[in-house]
Specification:
Blueprint lengths: L1 E6 L1 E2 L2 E2 L1 H12 L3 E8 L12 E7 L7 H13 L4 E5 L2 H14 L4 E10 L2 E8 L4 E7 L4 E5 L16 E5 L24 E5 L9 H11 L2 E4 L1 H5 L20 E5 L5 H4 L7 E6 L6 H4 L2 E4 L2 H10 L2
Parallel strand pairs: 1-4, 1-6, 4-5, 5-11, 6-10, 7-10, 12-13, 12-14, 14-15, 15-16
Antiparallel strand pairs: 2-3, 7-8, 8-9
């Protein structure tokens, strides 16, 4: 089955979500090419073991309609029937345009997929991760948005072998583009994630989590409750309506463990939970549980690292 992987480039390399999809496509033996979008002159994309195309826009902006037109042209000229994309802001926008051009409804929040008798079968998560359902796609084009951390990323050697196609932006006027500044380890890629919940009591106590994160070179996350309270930005939210993480170690500080939070971190390799409520749902997931006041436990950990 001819496949197009709609990839993304971050810091001159293929994103983790793109590498996860490449690994899955390789495992299924799909005939695929990778297309990425950006505005820099010479991105370093990935591996020469598969075909790569770079669609270069004249400027970094939110305009994707011309890019989508070019993607539709590639898909139809090369008889591509399956499009795979990580579920990110950029990919969701592009796939929305493609769904109109190709008259095919996209399937979102896909956690797995397979090919059976030339048909694409997707596995999707619902009810906060408590249930799954399968979908058989019957349209001529299958458009899948893959949930982050559904697969392991492939390890490939970087190089600069790719075809470049330039497209001009449309006449749509963009008045402002906001880019959030990032510093330190990022949730999506960090091997250690420390998340805070309401058990931290007040925003000022997050300094305890920050100290621990600095000692462990860890990324910091949080629950929806503290993000809604303004303690940290939405970009750090872990859970059903935030980001999905899959670190080697996940430390939950003062988090009860509601289903909506669990769906974003339950696949972490080793989970440590700190909570004064021994009946907290988070302990059902934890490999190591510490029953105690988070505001007392974290300083003790910091003292001994």
């Amino acid at each position: 089955m001819k496949t197009l992987i709609l990839g993304e480039v971050i810091d001159n390399k293929l994103s983790s979500g793109t590498l996860e999809i490449i690994n899955k496509a390789s495992g299924l033996g799909l005939d695929f090419k990778v297309v990425t979008v950006g505005s820099v002159e010479s991105p370093v994309l990935g591996s020469s073991t598969f075909q790569q195309t770079y669609i270069k826009r004249s400027a970094e902006s939110l305009q994707f309609n011309n890019v989508a037109d070019k993607l539709s042209q590639i898909i139809q000229e090369e008889n591509i029937s399956l499009v795979l994309a990580p579920s990110t802001y950029q990919s969701r926008d592009l796939v929305s345009f493609l769904s109109v051009d190709l008259s095919s409804s996209p399937v979102s929040n896909v956690i797995d997929f397979d090919i059976q008798d030339s048909a694409v079968i997707t596995t999707n998560s619902i009810n906060g991760g408590e249930s799954i359902y399968k979908t058989k796609i019957t349209s001529s084009h299958s458009l899948l948005l893959i949930r982050p951390k559904s697969f392991d990323p492939i390890d490939i050697e970087l190089n600069s072998e790719y075809e470049t196609i330039e497209v001009e932006n449309s006449s749509i006027e963009i008045f402002d583009v906001f880019k959030e500044e990032k510093s330190g380890p990022q949730l999506e890629d960090s091997k250690i994630v420390i998340s805070a919940g309401r058990g931290m009591v007040e925003k000022e106590n997050l300094s305890l989590v920050e100290d621990l994160a600095n000692k462990l070179n860890a990324a910091i996350g949080g629950t929806r409750a503290i993000v809604d309270a303004g303690w940290m930005p939405y970009s750090q939210q872990v859970g059903q309506t935030g980001k999905t993480v899959k670190p080697d170690v996940y430390i939950a500080c003062g988090i009860s463990g509601a289903t909506q939070h669990q769906v974003g971190m339950k696949d972490s390799k080793f989970i440590i939970a700190i909570n004064k409520d021994e009946e907290a749902p988070i302990f059902q997931l934890a490999d190591l549980g510490i029953v105690g006041d988070t505001l007392s436990v974290i300083p003790k950990i910091n003292e001994n690292i």
